[in-house]
Amino acid sequence: MTETCTATAPSSTANLGPGFDIFGLALNLFEDRVKLTRKQTKGNKIIINKIVQSGPEIPLEIQQNSSGLVVRKMAQDFKISDDIEIEIFKGIPSGYGLGSSAASSAAAAYAFSKLFKLKIDNNLLVDYAAEGEIASAGTKHYDNVASSLLGGFVIVRTLPKIEFIKMVPPEDLNIIVGVPQIIVPKKKTEAARNILPKNVSLDNVIQNISNASTVVAGFALKDVQMISKGINDMIIEPIRKKLIPNYEIVKKYALDAGALALTISGAGPSIIAILKTDVNSKKIISAIQDGFNESHIESKVYLCKPSNGAKII
Questions:
Q1: What range does the domain containing 118 cover?
Q2: Mean pLDDT in runs of 10 for the chain (313 residues)?
Q3: Is 25 helix (H, G, I), strand (E, B) or coil?
Q4: Contact 2, 39 (CB under 8 A)
Q5: Which of 149, 168, 187 is the last residue of a domain?
Q6: Does any domain span residue 271?
Q7: Which residues of 111-139 are buried (b: 16+ CB within 10 A; e: fewer)?
Q8: What is the DSSP string of 39-85?
Q9: Which of 71, 33, 70, 38 is nearest to 52 (CA)?
Q10: Catalytic residues
């Protein structure tokens, strides 16, 4: 006897400037799909038997695969001994800062909870989904998986306990995503974390707290202009922008063309620009492409909106 369950989870952008490891926003741009098959043969085997993808090869080994890590951890904790087969359909480009590993992790956790009829709250479910980030980032972190699983704008709290605060984004929030077509290293997220400073100035910390508070206020008040005012990072962006060809020129061109703000999407190299409407979107898309072209870098640029979270299909 076999049972199956398939879940999808959307792409996402993390940090939104000053909210490093704290802010996540689900995007309706791409999605990953994970199908789990339960075989009641009590062999206690977890097998990744299919990956459909375009782009870099994704490992089939459980310990190196985001979905595999999630399923293995949940099976162990809930003492499930059935054989489980995993099929992964990758729609999100890997390694570009759009929550690819997080979406696979979120879809796997959501499908597992539904397949085995687990009655667990969203906080615990996100914690399980974050297990998959170990494969790409070397450690658990929650911003992408929380937004991909829950949808909308999510604030991450880890002390005194894990907790996620979801807010519904403004309806007039539009996002342009620019994806430079460059080679990214394996475990790019881990590499991008390793270059971050160990110590930062108090002035920059104060400025980032102010900016992050402004972003949250903007989402609470459904005010895109206010969100944009807060998207200014004094700590992470100055380091990571060096990994993105012509970043400062791309940013200048986008802002001159009408973008309200521009920052790095997660660990990059993708960037996101914020708009209140899509009126100037074509002009901004061209500006971003022109900025990358000056460094002889091709780019793919998309207009999208915030997304709902994981779902069963």
A1: 2-168
A2: 93 97 97 94 81 76 92 95 94 91 97 96 95 87 96 95 95 97 80 86 97 98 98 96 95 98 96 94 98 96 98 97
A3: strand
A4: yes
A5: 168
A6: yes
A7: bbbbbbebeeeeeebbbbbbbbbbbbbee
A8: ETT----EEEEEEE-SSS----SGGG-HHHHHHHHHHHHTT--SEEE
A9: 33
A10: 133, 189
Q: Which CATH number do you get for residue 111?
A: 3.30.230.10
Please give the radius of gyration of the chain, using alpha carbons only, rounded to the nearest integer. 19
Q: Please check whether residue 147 lies inside any domain of the structure.
A: yes
* Cβ–Cβ under 8 Å, residues 48 and 105: no
Q: Which residue has the tokens 């926003």?
A: 25
Instruction: Read off the tokens for 88.
Output: 């992964």
What stretches of the chain adopt beta strand conformation (E)?
2-14, 23-39, 46-52, 83-89, 153-157, 163-167, 174-180, 261-264, 271-275, 299-304, 311-312
Listed residues 102, 133, 168: the one ending a domain: 168
Hey, what are 225's tokens? Answer: 């202009």
Looking only at the bridges linking them, the beta strands covering 153-157 and 23-39 are antiparallel
